[in-house]
Amino acid sequence: MTSLPAPETHDPLRRLATLAALAVLLGFAVQGLVLAAKLSFGASVPAAAFAVDLAAGVAWSAVVCLGASVGVSAFRAKAALAGLIAALFAPLGVAAAKAMNQTLSAAIGLSAKPAALPLIALAGLKAVEYAVLGFVLATLVQRGVQRLPPYAATGLAVGLVFGGAALALRLSAALATAPEIAALAVNEIVFPVGCAAVVYVGQAMGRAG
What we know:
single chain, mainly alpha, 6 helices, globular
């Protein structure tokens, strides 16, 4: 009797490592686009300030996008649980980005920028945003959707809705300048699309494995 081949136990770890790497690369890419948006509107961005923003952005991306990917993968049959996992990781990502910002700013002697929004309000908004994103992406997985465009469209829709809310809050606080508005628009719209693409890659790897 021919025995079945043993399962490749390294695949889940390889998949997790790939998703983590993609989440980090997404953070770098989004921060590069944010910098380009600021410069295109005439802002002056010192290298030290960019380094702080880059580190905070990468920390945020690594925690939130990886958390959403893991939530969707682990609870692919239960969209509500996937949304809950993504919602739990969002405040952790906000905290990680804030801690990275403060630590790096102190290390290089840079004055920390005042928060555009209260930390609790920002964490709450992001929790709801990524709960919705995780829920809808898990629903796509549950329905067997295997094409990238629906995932990207979900990220875009979520980014437009919640990015608009974040921008409205910032405008109401009279804290927004033209470069900041451009940077916020890029960050809030591009990142959810990229994160949805990372989730898609994770699902594609799972099917291939």
